[in-house]
């Protein structure tokens, strides 16, 4: 079965599966867009929310977001103390990397400690980078997922289906080819996407055992893409991965989401 959820209902996803307070997003194809969209949604409901990353984040603040670069955990905690009095959404980052136009992330253990310090705050965390691609494979140290993560959102952009397996379409295409067995240049098919999502060296390789997993197929902006996303969701659910009870298919750009379970 599936249930359509709108902007208001999407915020409620943050309260499912044991009321998760740390939500980590990984993969490609709309990770930052979803994080910022979700943060605005929560903020509009009066819920304290912080966005951050454990890797790197593009140095382009969006309207309604304030970037803060605490130099210590103590300073980060002080920033959280002032969160509710601000009409801006707080984004915690590390230092600027001028050559890349990006900001480093905060130490992963800070997320664990900050979530304990501020239990009423929801933390949305980017746990990897995808170089703008809709699909990726991970190196051995990736993704960087806080241990306190209670909801993990692996993201894939549906526009990658049918595209040739190359670095232009898949971040770390060589690693993706090794995991899936696909040849470079071959069309990326649903089976390959499913394999990298569920493989022991794929998207879930660093997932905490205690986290619920909600895969999200983004860029479902045509009927063809929607159908492809629904088929992928059904196959993931049929695989019986114990941490996955539902799958999200939709479009951040169009504010349209369906949750399949």
Descriptive overview:
By secondary structure, this protein is an alpha/beta fold. It has one domain: Rossmann fold. Helix content is 28%, strand content 24%. The protein contains 7 helices and 16 strands. The chain has helices spanning 7-12, 31-44, 73-81, 108-117, 173-180, 190-198, 223-239, and strands at residues 2-5, 22-27, 49-53, 56-58, 65-68, 89-92, 96-97, 102-104, 122-126, 135-136, 151-157, 170-171, 212-213, 216-218, 247-251, 256-260. Strands 1, 2, 3, 5, 6, 9, 11, 13, 14, 15 and 16 form an 11-stranded mixed β-sheet that branches. The protein has a 3-stranded antiparallel β-sheet with strand order 4-8-7, with no helix packed on it. The radius of gyration is 18 Å and the shape is globular.
Secondary structure topology:
Layout: E1 2-5, H1 7-12, E2 22-27, H2 31-44, E3 49-53, E4 56-58, E5 65-68, H3 73-81, E6 89-92, E7 96-97, E8 102-104, H4 108-117, E9 122-126, E10 135-136, E11 151-157, E12 170-171, H5 173-180, H6 190-198, E13 212-213, E14 216-218, H7 223-239, E15 247-251, E16 256-260
Parallel strand pairs: 2-9, 2-11, 3-6, 3-9, 5-6, 10-12, 11-13, 11-14, 14-15
Antiparallel strand pairs: 1-16, 4-8, 7-8, 15-16
Helix pairs in contact: 3-4, 6-7
């Amino acid at each position: 079965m599936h249930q359509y959820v709108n902007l208001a209902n999407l915020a409620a996803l943050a309260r499912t599966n044991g009321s998760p307070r740390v939500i980590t997003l990984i993969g490609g194809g709309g990770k930052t867009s979803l994080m910022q969209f979700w943060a605005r949604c929560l903020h509009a409901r009066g819920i304290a929310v912080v966005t951050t990353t454990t890797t790197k984040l593009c140095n382009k603040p969006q309207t309604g977001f304030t970037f803060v670069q605490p130099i210590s955990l103590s300073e980060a905690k002080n920033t959280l103390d002032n969160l509710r009095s601000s009409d801006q959404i707080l984004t915690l980052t590390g230092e600027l990397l001028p050559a890349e136009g990006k900001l480093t992330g905060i130490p992963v253990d800070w997320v664990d400690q900050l979530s304990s310090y501020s239990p009423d705050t929801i933390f949305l965390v980017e746990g990897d980078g995808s170089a703008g691609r809709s699909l990726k494979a991970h190196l051995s140290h990736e993704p960087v997922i806080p241990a306190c993560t209670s909801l993990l959102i692996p993201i894939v952009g549906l526009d990658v289906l049918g595209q040739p397996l190359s670095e232009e379409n898949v971040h770390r295409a060589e690693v993706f080819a090794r995991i899936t067995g696909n040849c470079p240049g071959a069309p990326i098919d649903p089976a390959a996407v499913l394999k990298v999502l569920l493989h022991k060296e794929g998207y879930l390789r660093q997932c905490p055992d205690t986290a619920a997993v909600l895969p999200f197929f983004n860029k479902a902006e045509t009927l063809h893409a929607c159908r492809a996303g629904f088929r992928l969701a059904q196959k993931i659910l049929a695989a019986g991965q114990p941490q996955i009870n539902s799958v999200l298919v939709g479009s951040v750009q169009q504010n349209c989401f369906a949750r399949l379970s």
